[in-house]
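WARN retry 2 of 3 for item q-0093 after timeout on previous attempt; input resubmitted unchanged.
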Amino acid sequence: MRHSTTHALLWLLLFIPSVLFAQLADSIAIVTKEWKATPIKRGVVWKKGHFEDLFQSQQEINFVEIDLKKHGKKLGLAADSSLLKKTSQFAAENQAIVAINGGFFDMKNGGSVDYIKVKGTVINNTRVKTDRGNALLMLSKKTIAILPTEGVDYENSAFPNVLLSGPLLLQQGKATNLEQNAFNKNRHPRSALALTKEGKLLLLVVDGRNARAQGMRLEELAKVLRWLGARDAMNLDGGGSSSLYVNSKTKTGLVNHPSDNGAFDPEGERPVANILYLK
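OK item q-0093 returned
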């Protein structure tokens, strides 16, 4: 009997833990990463890292970490109801030191396809409700929150700045249930926002559609954010729209590698409808 039990345990060790071991290796790779860290100003740091084998793929991650106690009052949204502008242009117009592209938009006619309010003015209303649009960024001078849309009357909220996007990735440190569809399951460039347990805001971009950066599934993106200490997190518009701006660090200000031009450089920037920025 003892021999039979030992034999069974050996088989379990050989076969069942393989996925767990892979996840452990991926989490260790993130939390022990020697990120290339560049201070932008006190309480604002840009971090960059390349991974040869993360989720069994090559990955390139850039994120800006913002101390909300020092800079929460300097965050803002910028948007246009019909025109599309590059993230770098929006950023320059608003004297931003860092910025990230925002929500989904109409590539043909411009403007956001989901609700967005800036400085108390509604810029665009939601055109068609989708399962994907289930996350809110709500921002005032005193408060910043990432919330599920369910149960939140955001259209009548007193918050002067509201961005609807998604899907929601993390809530109170727990991964959300993601729909099993191509958008979520395929690897793409990704953009995301996250609030950490330590009171910091993360603006994170994952490059993709390149041999040196294959992009992430949303489940993988959520794991990375959680391993970085995120409590609440939401997905933003990704693909060719993914763009992270840090003033004066490159010719365009972009520090990631947008995929639209097919080259692994900061030059392939796509015009977008809105951004989140730090002034």
